[in-house]
Amino acid sequence: MSEHRKTHRVNKTVKSEVRTEESVTLSSSVDVSRGGIFISTPEPLSNGSTVNLTIMLPGNGEVEVQGVVRWIRDDETPSGKAGMGIEFVNVNGDLSRKLDGLLD
Predict the structure, then answer these.
(1) How many domains does the chain have?
(2) Is 81 part of any domain?
(3) What is the Cα–Cα distance from 89 to 48, expressed in whole angstroms?
(4) Per residue in 69-91, pLDDT tens?
């Protein structure tokens, strides 16, 4: 996959919960930026799915954010786990500050 990211991304393991109208997925996230997150899961949602996320930020508690699935990886590969890339939408100032703290 080519590199098209707009924001700095770091490898951080944080716990997360992804909710849709049909399901709830608990997972570890290993890749986070101000613009989105990679959720490791053996059953990624479809591209374009709208989700509500709860992300547990060490030292900053839980944050809630809406997102859209932008890409999926169905199978484990030597370069990465199965999962989905989620773009954050409607990021408010409080969430932005907390993400900045995580990414520093």
Answers:
(1) 1
(2) yes
(3) 12
(4) 999 998 888 878 899 999 999 88
Report CA Rg, the chain.
Answer: 13
In a domain, residue 3? The reply is no
Q: Which domain holds residue 60?
A: 9-103
Beta bridge partners of 54: 17, 64
Please, is 4 exposed, middle or buried when counting C-beta atoms within 10 Å of its C-beta (0-12, 13-18, 19+)?
exposed
Euclidean distance between CA atoms 46 and 14, whole angstroms: 22
Is residue 76 situated within a structural domain? yes
Q: What is the pTM of this model?
A: 0.82
Q: How many CB atoms lie within 10 A of CB 101?
A: 12
In whole angstroms, give the CA distance from residue 32 to residue 53. Answer: 13
8 Å CB contact between 86 and 36: yes
Q: In this model, does residue 22 exceed pLDDT 60?
A: yes
Tell whether 88 is covered by a domain.
Answer: yes
CA distance 55 to 60: 10
